[in-house]
Amino acid sequence: YLVGVGRADCTGPVAQVPLMGYAKPEQVGGGLLSRLYSRAFIVADPERSKRVVFVSADIGMVSQRLRLEVLQKLRSKYGELYGQDNVILSGTHTHSGPGGYFQYTLFWITSKGLIKPALSSIVNGIVKSIDIAHENMKRGRLFINRGTVENSQINRSPFSYLENPESERNRYSSNTDKEMVVLKMVDDDGHELGLISWFAVHPVSMNNSNHLVNSDNVGYASYLFEQEKNKGMLPGEGSFVAAFASSNLGDVSPNTRGPFCADTGEPCDNPQSSCPVGGAAMCMAKGPGNDMFESTRIIGQNLYLKAKELYEEASQEVTGPLSSAHQWVNMSDVSVELNATHTVKTCKPALGHSFAAGTIDGVGAFNFTQGSVEGDPFWDQIRDQLLGEPSNETKACHKPKPILFSTGEMTWPHPWHPDIVDVQIAAIGSLAILAVPGEFTTMSGRRLREAVKSEFDSHGTQGMNVVIAGLCNVYTHYITTYEEYQVQRYEAASTIYGPHTLSAYIQLYRGLAKAIALNATEELPRGPEPPLFNVTTLTLLPALGVENAPANKNFGDVLEEVRQEYREGEVAEVTFVGANPRNSAENATEHNFLTVEKYSNISSSWRAVLNDASWDTRFYWSKGLNRQSNVTVEWHIPAGAAPGVYRLRYFGHYKKRVFPLRTVTVPFQGSSAAFRITAP
């Protein structure tokens, strides 16, 4: 094969933009813990001029809008080389990245509309990562390996899982998929290029009280792997690319200590995930660490260590032809043949009452609880008044789900949910990557993988390694099994196309696998093209205005200075006269907000040893009165930090008025005093 890898920044605005994942409107960005990256991998078959692109981006999920804009840019750059058939875009599912990059109305509600700077930075980052991979294609080899990851996940809806047939559950040792699959890439000279790891876990070690943009546990695993391989480089630099991609993580939490009542500390692992006092809003899961930062590192480190071991020992080479199959499908109207006599249908999209309950990883609002199979007259009446009552047809189709939002019947100002959905498989020799448009639960994923594998087998393509890549191409929430659907916990209430959603996907992915096995992908009907709505930007985000520094101060001046001396384990921090970080995101795609610099006696100069992509630094922005704001830069000094003299620097942009109606954006910087780190 020819193999190329690339990585590019896709962070976007780190302030004021709602973070995407927990659907909590007040959870808006207020700074940066780690940068977000798009990681691209291209595999090409030089003989048959076939290519496959796999992108894993540190974002909540890929939206239809995002995918369509990326494909447009690729088409204008590369013609027919990269298109909807052979490009897979997957989100890692971090819940700490900026939102606002969706065109369907439902997602506007919690992310303040469509936010152009957030959308553009992700589109540009993905395209740039593909460009880098495209420009660096080398002859190379691929190796696959798989192994078990322990102590890193629990099933957050075990009562739903238990609804699956006992005979089926008995075939598996656990109610989560503990297997990690690693694809290793090296060039013909044996130089290491990168890896993709697929593993099923929610990146929700950082909870919904967090306001710092970051890539969560899987992003920390990528960071550790890339730091290890790109020795001596700043984070985000260097040629080795390590993606920790999502899989069938629908019911899988990294908060391994399980759910407890926030007020009493008693466990709340009951079918409703509810506490005696305070109900469901009090029932929250705990990670392995003392706080969310530590939990993120513990889970991320577990993933990194297992991936490293599998990478180093990978010896099974991936060979064979490349192929990709893609279709657009109207998921609100798929007929599924369950058997010779029984045909069922999918439904127009709708969300159930338990959608509003959230999960033990991020609780919902009001008094909604998981496992509601009956509506609540109070909320139903409010909904009927505000949004309209669901039709009888949709109600019947979704049974036993009590519908809270009949999104498939809500079209103002645009449709609230997609009807047209991508289904896609890319085959790289013996590896089949199933790009799925949402969050499959553990058992749903097992059924899908098994069905696709048996389809390949029955058409003479034996021994395929089938992996699920989650949150690809368009977001359609969750996909539970028919049995899990019956008890209507959060994942089932969020299975938007009704009880037969999984059966429909299995039928569709079997069709794609058959086409690949029979070399008949050209004959697959393309399906109905998805709409691209004519909204460029529509947002409730506050406008960026002119900013002020306090009297007798300039932007970048120090307000609170560092101490003169620190030891490892302590936090060096400095507060500056700051400006809205959105100015920087809207001014330059790759803006670094901070550096930690070390003084070299040999060269009598300062050298950057860390940037804002480091997990040891934190960048906080706080808005004050009179158009003023402060920025605090923290460095959490790790064990083993080299003794010596250091300083912390801050880089920003502020808006200044030059004419009555014209403003300009002005760059500035600030620096702390020098401080010493002493040996422990």
Protein architecture, described:
This protein has two domains: about 1-330 and about 415-525, no CATH class; about 555-675, Immunoglobulin-like. The chain is about 20% helix and about 30% strand. The chain has 14 helices and 40 strands. Strand 19 (about 335) and strand 20 form a beta hairpin. The radius of gyration is 25 Å and the shape is globular. It starts with a strand and ends with a strand. The model has no long low-confidence stretch (mean pLDDT about 95).
Features:
7-stranded antiparallel β-sheet; 680 residues; 14 helices; 22% helix; 9-stranded mixed β-sheet; alpha+beta; single chain; EC 3.5.1.23; NEUT/ALK_ceramidase_N; 2 domains; N-acylsphingosine amidohydrolase activity; Neutral ceramidase; Immunoglobulin-like
Question: How do you describe this structure in short?
Answer:
With 680 residues, the chain is an alpha+beta fold. The strands form eleven sheets. Strands 1, 4, 5, 6, 9, 11, 12, 13 and 17 form a nine-stranded mixed sheet that branches. Strands 7-2-3-36-37-33-31 form a seven-stranded antiparallel sheet, with no helix packed on it.
What order do the helices and strands come in, and which of them pair?
Blueprint: E1 2-9, E2 15-20, E3 28-32, E4 37-45, E5 50-57, H1 64-78, E6 87-91, E7 97-98, H2 105-111, E8 113-114, H3 116-135, E9 138-148, E10 154-155, H4 158-161, H5 166-169, E11 179-187, E12 192-198, H6 216-229, E13 241-245, E14 252-253, E15 258-261, E16 283-286, H7 292-313, E17 316-318, E18 322-330, E19 335-337, E20 343-345, E21 351-352, E22 358-359, E23 362-363, H8 377-387, H9 392-398, E24 403-405, E25 420-428, E26 431-435, E27 439-440, H10 442-458, E28 465-469, E29 478-479, H11 482-485, H12 490-493, H13 501-517, E30 538-539, E31 558-560, E32 565-566, E33 571-578, H14 582-587, E34 594-600, E35 605-611, E36 617-623, E37 629-636, E38 644-659, E39 662-671, E40 675-677
Parallel strand pairs: 5-6, 12-13, 26-28, 27-29, 32-40
Antiparallel strand pairs: 1-4, 1-9, 2-3, 2-7, 3-36, 4-5, 8-30, 9-11, 9-17, 10-14, 11-12, 15-16, 18-25, 19-20, 21-24, 22-23, 25-26, 31-33, 33-37, 34-35, 34-38, 36-37, 38-39, 38-40
